[in-house]
Every structure is written in structure tokens, then in C-alpha cells.
Amino acid sequence: MTDTAHRPTPAPTSVGRGVPERPALEGLEGAWLETWRENKTYAFVRPESREQVFSIDTPPPTVSGSLHVGHVFSYTHTDIIARYQRMRGKHVFYPMGWDDNGLPTERRVQVYYGVRCDPSLPYETGFEPPAKPDPKKQQPISRKNFIELCELLTQIDEKAFEDLWRQLGLSVDWSTLYTTVSSDSVGIAQKAFLRNLARGEAYLSFAPTLWDTTYQTAVAQAELQARDYPGAYHRVAFRRPDGSPVYIETTRPELLPSVCALIAHPDDERYADLFGTTVTSPLFGVEIPVLAHRAAERDKGAGIAMCCTFGDQTDVTWWRELRLPTRTVVMRDGRLQRETPEWLVNTDPYEQLAGKTTFSAREATVALLRESGDLDGEPKPTTRNVNFYEKGERPLEIVATRQWYITNGGRDDALKQRLIERGAEMAWTPAHMQHRYNDWVSGLNGDWLISRQRFFGVPFPVWYPLDADGEADWEHPILPAEADLPVDPMTLCPAGYTEDQRGMPGGFVPDTDVMDTWATSSLSPWIVCGWERDPELFALTFPMDVAPQAHDIIRTWLFSRVVRSHFEFDCVPWSRATISGFVVDPDRKKMGKSSGNAIVPTEILSTYGSDAVRWRAAMARPGTDSPFDETQMKVGRRLAMKVLNASNFVLGISGVEADLSAVTEPADLAMLESLRGVVSLATQALEEFEYTDALEATERFFWGFCDDYLELVKNRAYSEGPASASAKAALVLALGVQLRLFAPYLPFVTEEVWSWSHEGSVHHAPWPSAAELPTTGEVELMDDIAAALVEIRGAKSQAKVSMKTEASSAEFSGPAEQLERLRTIETDLRAVGRLTGTVTWTVTDTPLTVTLALATDA
User: What is the distance, to the nearest Å, from the Cα of residue 576 to the centroid of all Cα atoms in its chain?
Assistant: First the structure.
């Protein structure tokens, strides 16, 4: 699977810049970042075939503030895989982008500059935002001025993001950098939408919509967040024709003006005589039908409920299936409409509700019900589960609006099943994350709402003709030619019209909405791979190899990309999805700014170094939440320092030449044979994207190599002769392999050490293979050595003497096979343990013990 023709591969014995006298971690990052930049170390070089490429659909982070430690962890995971694949000989296509459109950016601009968008205002040339922004008194500015500020602030944030990613050592090809509001991205998003529209996969519909009254925009199912919300049940009387009450229980009495039916279960005998009759609504005197529907819950409240347009999704279902009239009173601003609804019989009570927020209208309605005698008892406090926009602070309302949708299986069972099957066409790491995908798709109850009533985003490439009365013809939109994309209908007029016809009878009006941020992000594989812009690049990189992301956006980013690729290419957009977990605090709470427990990445990177932070990130397994403990960074730094110092020792004592045929001593062969197993294990783990397993195996061997093997052969390596040559060769060979095993995780320190003895970058060196190492050693001997050294060190520690204290005699007792192996390295054991006298070997059935006769410590 390897291909190294596109770059030079350094020979193991090539000459580098030499071993420094006093190596240090300080300064490595800056020096190597500049070298990598100058040498274009990570630039993507186009090969001849798709099989030579490994392409990554890198998540474009939202540019609306700052990155957090969770980003650092998850992007490190991706970089580990990218570096590994590069060393395997792949041409790694590793782009980076910024998701800089949508509500998060607008919110940040509003707070940062103290402004808000008012599309009715004219553009102000040379506009300067307030010198002292006040988020609570935001200055209204034109749409164009607002967008310019969005672009300005995202450029500032993007520079900070890039600096952090470079400091972390991400091996992305920065020449591929893109943004989701660039001209190219906008053109691709608009073209993809027009294709969806032409095939009937996108459509415009006036229908009940989840609506955030704070941000004045529609919200999709994937953006919902269920939260507990305090409320109260109100027992309210509707009246039969004879004046007797029919009680319902509701938490939203302010919706009484919008009641269009009472609904009960068809098998509920309590209301059997009411079905097909009418009752009169309290306060407003409206005649209301009593109907049956199986979605009514007999055991909830009074068992009969009022259907309003609209209180919740059940109301929408009843309204649609029972063909009920639309009586909307809650407007887009979250207030009850100011005009008295025409269907109300008694209009006076509504005067006390008109224009009020739903909260104030609720209080006023309850007061009116008390006064009329239609409230039975006092409200009973309760806590209910209510839908919020994931970034919002108030419960969502449901209002009827005109919105764009893309079909996603929510209303088409055949399509839903096909998209579930698509999930099985890719590999998942970890495998159980596929269940989350399946559960999400199976639970969809509506199509994907892709339009937003915002300003900074991809505009819909649509205009609508106006008839002679100035009314828009929504059924016959005016569309641009693909060759004319991208377009902004707010500033450009459609073909065949002139600008003076904008908003005039017989003229046109633009679609004023922008696309949901996921509608653009769902096209990230198309954008980076050059869809219909660069056919050669697209053929080399799409479908992509891996899509890394966190598990909370399986329902949004991952699924939306599957939907778009299914429609356009009839395939999944990548062969594997790798899912990372959250970084949580010690109480297992997700870390973030809103929780007050966020960790600033630049601080830990500056304090402990990038290699240390990357090591800690790599210890977080795929798909698993990882508690953050800053002290763990010290362990990673200790490892990086040990790599530096151990390498300095090995190359200082052994030089850079390594001849495998020179390795003849049992301990050396055993060490290399053990390392051979580590190479196989690490390679298999990384092929399966289990980067933590590979690191653990490598690190476990490394510490044993330093603590046991180096100490065992140190004296022999310093001497002369074949035995010394064996130790030196084994040390250099083992070091070269371990540096390459560590390189994806610790890119800075490994690059530094590699440069002492090699030309070129370790990150373009071939990944180690088992074939590089001998097969004649006894792996068990490495465990024997560790056990023997524990005994020798333990005996001296217990006697409270220096490790340099000589032993006049030593007795090794243990199983015969173990003793037989240890006897082959008696010379090394004598040297490391300072065993100057007799050494005896006693076979027992018990674990290995070493008894020393210690000389008096001088």
C-alpha cells in the first residue's frame, strides 16, 4: 500500500547535523514550524492514482470566538492519522477550512462591535463601529455594513485559529485553506441547491415552523435541545351547549384565542358523547369542535386537550391530519398579534392580551379566567420538557412561515431506509457510533429545514416575480444559470429584469433568507475536493477516506453530508467516520465557555509544550469522553524530555551507523524482537484508527527500553569488540524505529532528534516495518531482564545502599527456563548489578528472586 516515489526517503545511516551538547525542548516548536513552512513539508503533491491518496474531510471550526481544549484533542487525533498515513507512503490530502457564516458569527459581531443589522437602512460608506460598544444598546446598521463587519471579525479570529493549529503541529496543507463564505464556497452551495431543486429534493413550503423569537429565525430538528422548564397546569372549563363544563388542563392558557378543536382518544368513553359536537371556548365564546385522534393521551391531565395553532408538535400533527383551521396568534417576535383575531366572538378580553409577550399574556389570561369563573382551582406547578434552540435562551414557538427544505427521509420512509443503509456503507470508529446515526435517522419526523432569517451566510439564488398587484408568485421562482453563480439576489437582479423593477408590480423581489450553516458545511467534501472546479483533484480525493468529528454532530454535520452526497453522487462521501468524545471536567461535565470551566489552549501549549499536549490528547480513546487534568500534561512533557535525552545518549555513545548484521548478543536480539512485535501491534492499531492503543504499546516499550535495556547494555556499549558493536547497532536501530513510531504523536521532538542523524524529515521517513528487525531473539528475555533488575535494585534499596554498591556474590533462583535465558546475558547482568563475585543459579518452582551479598558502601 506504500508509495514513496513522490519524495526522497532518507537512508537509515545518512548524516544529519550532529548531536548537540545540551539538547532542550525549549525553542523546538518555533524552529521546526518555520522549517516546515519553508520546505512545504506537508504540501499535497498530486500522484497518478486515487489509490495513492489519503484524503481527510477536516471539520471546519466555527469562527465565532475561541478554540477550546476539546478542539485541541480532537484535531490532534486527526493529525496523528494524517502523519501515520504520510509515513506509510500516502499522498495525504489534509485541508483546513473555517466555518464563518451563520448565527454564531452574527452574535459575536453584535457583542464585539455593539451593532445590529437593520436591512431597511442604507449602506454607509466608511462606517466605523462605536468606539465603546454597548451590547445592550446596539447601533442599527445596514445589511451590507453588518456583513462587512462579520467578514472583518472572522478574518481576525481565523488568524488566531491558524496560529493555534500551527503551534499544535497540525500537518495540514495550508495552501488548501477555505472559508464557507468565500466566493467559491458560495458558488458550490448555490449550485448544489439548484441541483437539489431541479431534482425535486429541495422545495419551498409555507408551514408550521419551529421558531426562535430571540434570534428571529427558523430552527431545524437537528438544532433542538430539550430542557426542563418551569410551568403550571391550569384546569380550564369549556362549555357544552347546556352550560355544563368540559375541563381541559393546559400549561399554555395564553393560547386560548388560537384553539381550533378539543381532542380526545377515540376509545375514551368519558368523551364518547362529545365527539362530533361542539363546545364554547372560555373568554372568547368561539364554537369549538370535539374530535377524536389516537395521539391523545387518556392518562394525561383530563384526557382531553385543546389543539391550538400552534403550541407543540402534537398540535401540528392534529392540525394537519384533521384539517383544522389555522388560528395563529403568536407572532415571530414572541408576542401575541396586536390586531384582534377575526374569529373571536367576544373580542373585549383580547384587548388585554394584544401585543404582550407569551409570558405576560399567560398571566393576563389566568387573571381573566379567574374573573370569569372558568379557572377551576389554582394553577399547579410542574416542570415540563420544552424544546429550545441549542443556542437560545427562550422556549421555541411554532409559527407558520415560508421556508426552504431538503428531503431527508423524515417524511419518506423509503428514503429514510436508504439513508440508514448508507450508514452501513462506511466504517465507524468506534463501531457503536453507527447506532447513534441509525437512531437519529430513524427518529426523523420532518424534512431538513435549510433556510434561516439571518444576514451573514450563503444567499438563496432565487427571486420571485411580482404580479400586477405586487404579490409574489412563490410557485414560480426565478433562478439564475449555473454559469452566473455565485449571486446575491439582494444586490443583483435576475436576467430579463432591470434594477428599477425591484419590488415593483410586474417586477421581482429577492429571496431574503440565507442557508443554514449546515447546508454549506454539508458540502465540505465538495468544496475541498474541487467539485466541478478541478476535475483532476476531485477524482484523486473523492470519495474521501475519513471524516473525523465529535459525536454531538453526527445528527447534523455527518448526516447532512451523507444526504447531499446520496443525492448528487449516489454514494457516501467517505469510507470511514471517526468519532471523538468530549473533554470533560473532573465532574464529567462538558467543558466550555458557557459552563465556566473552559481551558484556554494557548496557556497549556505554552506551559507544557505541544508534544506534551498532543500526548495527552492521544490518550483519549475514540468516541470516549476524557476528564481533563492539567497535571497529566507533565507526564507528556516528561516523555518528550526522555525521548530527547535518551536519543542524545544513544547517538552519543553509538554514533549514527547501524548494521543489522552486527547485532549478535542475546539481549540485543531479544530487545529488537520485542520491538518487532510493537511495530506490528502499533501498525495494526493505526490501520484501525485506534491511535491510543498504538501509543500505549510504543510508550510501554520505550520506558522499558530506557529503564532496563539501556542500563543493561550501557557498559558493554562503552567498551570495544563485537559485543560492543552489537549493543551500539541495536541501540541505533531501536532508536530509529521508536522515533518513527512516536513521530505522529510527538512531531517536534522526533523531528529534532531525527535531524541529528538524518537528512530530510522524519515525517516523510517510511513507517517502520517488522521486516527491518531480526526474528532470532527471545522476546521472553525482555521480561526476564525487567524482573532481574527489579530484584537487584530492590535488594540494594532495601539495604539502603547505592545502586553502585558491588555485590560479592549473587544467587538467582527461579524457573529453569527463565534462568537458562538469563544465563545467556550473565556478563550484562554482572555489569549493571556490579556483581563482582560468584553468581549461582538455583532452579525453583517459585518466581524469580535475586539474593545479593553486598559489600560495605564506601
Answer: 15
Distance CA 383, CA 229 (A): 5
- Name the average pLDDT for the chain: 92
Q: How far apart are CA 87 and CA 741, in angstroms?
A: 10
Average pLDDT over residues 763-774: 95
Q: Which three cell numbers stand for residue 696?
A: 500505549
- Ramachandran assignment for 46, one of left (phi > 0), alpha (psi -120 to 50 degrees), beta (any other): beta
> If you compute the radius of gyration of the chain from its CA atoms, what whole number of angstroms results?
35
Residue 506 phi, psi dihedral angles, 5° rounding: 80, -5
- What distance in Å separates the CA atoms of residue 849 and residue 842, rounded to the nearest whole number? 10
The answer for residues whose C-beta is within 8 angstroms of residue 216's C-beta and 6 or more apart is 332, 333, 453
Return d(Cα 415, Cα 412) in angstroms, integer.
5
Q: Which pLDDT tens digit goes with each residue over 94-126?
A: 999 999 877 778 888 888 899 988 888 999 999
pLDDT > 60? residue 251: yes
CA angle, residues 740, 544, 96, in degrees to nearest 5: 70
Q: pLDDT (tens digit, 9 = 90+) per residue, 640-658?
A: 999 999 999 999 887 767 7
Distance between CA atoms of 700 and 552, rounded to whole angstroms? 33
| Beta-carbon contacts of residue 638 (< 8 Å; ≥ 6 apart) | none
User: Among residues of the chain, what percentage have pLDDT more than 70?
Assistant: 97
Q: What is the pTM of this model?
A: 0.86
3-state SS, one letter per residue, for 277-301? CEEECCCCCCEEEEEECCCCCCCCC
Name the grid cell of 760.
530530510
The Cα 85–Cα 74 span in angstroms is 17
166-220 tens-digit pLDDT: 999 999 999 999 999 899 999 999 999 999 999 999 999 988 888 888 888 888 8
Strands 427-429 and 576-580: parallel
Q: What phi, psi does 754 have (nearest 5°)? A: -60, -35
Query: CA 818 from chain center: how many Å?
Result: 50
Nearest CA to 172 out of 238, 81, 79, 103 is that of: 79
Question: Percent helix, strand, coil in the chain (nearest 5)?
Answer: 40, 20, 40
| Spatial distance between the Cα atoms of 641 and 698, rounded to a whole number of angstroms | 16
Spatial separation of the C-alpha atoms in residues 169 and 83, rounded to whole Å: 11
Give the contacts of 393 (CB within 8 A, at least 6 positions apart): 214
The 3-class secondary structure across 558-597, one letter per residue, is HHHHHHHHHHHHCCCCECEEEEECCEECCCCCECCCCCCC
295 contacts 318 by C-beta, under 8 angstroms = yes
Residues 583 and 74: their CA atoms lie apart, in Å, by 9
Query: Cα dihedral sign for 819, 823, 826, 832?
Result: negative
Give 438-475 pLDDT, tens digit per residue.
999 999 988 999 998 888 899 999 999 999 999 999 99
Cα gap 296→437, rounded to integer Å: 30
Instruction: Specify whether the CB–CB gap between 239 and 282 falls below 8 A.
Output: yes
DSSP 3-state of 515: strand
Per the model's pLDDT, the better-predicted residue between 16 and 622 turns out to be 622
DSSP letter at 341?
A: P
d(CA 633, CA 493) in angstroms, rounded, equals: 57
pLDDT of residue 14: 44
